[in-house]
Design a protein that fits this description.
This protein is of the alpha/beta class. It has a domain of 235 residues: Rossmann fold. It is built from 11 helices and 10 strands. Helix 1 crosses helix 11.
């Protein structure tokens, strides 16, 4: 008699998020789960910005017939106002807590600022829901805020939260992970100590070869500027003065290191000369960092055409697919794109989590966390 193989049911993995934004982490997790025996459930996502919530709903929850009340999954509130106890149980918790007080461009108030202490609400989720794994993301400047004391305090709190977590802290250069943009971020992956004691260990995926980096030209080649058939591809408004200034700037140059012969087009700004002001892309390299806000000269500029990029092009540099539709006006969409976690970068991290933590496999190629592994720390006071 012929034996039939028993079909294994996919492993259900429940994902919860704070500061979910337009869905960069969520999309990366979906991409990582695709083709694997994983049934990814987006249990809940909390986000204060209403437009970001709509973006998340129409892209991440799109086509899911089981989702009758998406507003019950995507919660439009500040994390401080959410009843954590009322949230359902999860297996993975992701939170890219606000970077405003840690950014190199900001005032660097760290945990003394308005946004710096918000990581604590992520720690409260770990205390309450005790997920198997968590992923936290922030800017590289978090390492030196408050003379390094802020980062130490954050790591201690996260390590001692809930059941206790082993932290794998790594400084990712996302251009090395299929993202067409030089975007450098600290990512903390925490795995329950009880799981680590059984031999489970998260592994940092090895970066791609420099020869395989996606360039700005490759990322934008499928986009016709202003094409109305593509969402969020409206041509941004800019003056003739900007166009003329750009005409003097070569690919890779900015308003400071180029030779602008017309005096009225030169910038008269006191203080630091920011390198990304009116900086043009290089077609043969990944883009410089896409930001969510900023005044004149910060919109990212085409290497050949004398113009800023459209939001659709900016989203492509963040590795969002062309079909990903953002809700809101031009300024809101720009902010959502710039503040998001690049989906392809998130995909690399979640792929490793699924393989090494949930299926106990070893990666074929990995690297050691470049900021080490941190064990449980019960000394921090809550």
């Amino acid at each position: 008699m012929r034996k039939h193989k028993t079909r294994k049911h996919p492993k259900i993995v429940r994902l919860g998020e704070f500061f979910s934004g337009p869905g960069g982490f969520a999309l990366g997790a979906k991409m990582a789960a695709s083709g694997k025996p994983i049934n990814l459930k987006h249990s809940w996502a909390v986000e204060a910005d209403a437009n970001s919530c709509q973006t998340y709903i129409q892209n991440i929850l799109k086509g899911k017939s089981s989702v009758k009340r998406p507003d019950k999954i995507v919660i439009n509130q500040r994390v401080e106002n959410v009843s954590i106890k009322s949230l359902s149980g999860i297996d993975i918790f992701a939170f890219g807590f606000p970077c405003n007080d840690f950014s190199q461009v900001g005032e660097r108030k760290g945990t003394d600022g308005k946004f710096g202490p918000l990581y604590e609400w992520g720690a409260k989720v770990l205390d309450s829901k005790k997920p198997k794994v968590f992923v936290a993301e922030n800017v590289g400047g978090i390492r030196s805020a408050n003379d390094g004391k802020a980062f130490d305090a954050i790591l201690s709190r996260l390590a001692s939260a809930g059941p206790g977590y082993t932290l794998y802290v790594h400084f990712y250069k996302f251009e090395e992970y299929n993202v067409p943009q030089n975007r450098h971020r600290v990512v903390i992956v925490g795995v329950r100590n009880s799981m680590v004691s059984t031999g489970i260990s998260y592994q940092v995926p090895a970066p791609y070869s420099a020869k395989k980096m996606v360039t700005a030209q490759q990322a934008l080649k499928a986009i016709k500027y202003g094409d109305p058939s593509l969402p969020n591809n409206e041509e941004p408004r800019f003056t003739d003065e900007v166009r003329r200034r750009l005409s003097y700037i070569k690919p890779g140059e900015n308003a400071w290191n180029s030779t602008i012969s017309e005096p009225e087009l030169r910038l008269n700004v006191k203080g630091a000369k920011l390198s990304n002001i009116y900086r043009r892309l290089r077609p043969d390299r990944p883009s410089y960092t896409v930001t969510g806000s900023g005044g004149g000269g910060t919109h990212i500029y085409h290497w050949k055409e004398d113009r800023p990029l459209s939001n659709r092009e900016r989203a492509a540099l963040q590795s969002f697919p062309l079909s990903y539709r953002f809700s809101g006006g031009l300024t809101s969409v720009r902010k959502q794109i710039g503040m998001a976690v690049p989906p392809r970068g998130a995909c690399s991290i979640f792929s490793s989590i699924f393989k090494t933590v949930f299926f106990r496999k070893r990666l074929r190629s990995s690297v050691a966390p470049n900021m080490g592994i941190r064990g449980p720390d019960r000394s921090s006071k809550r």
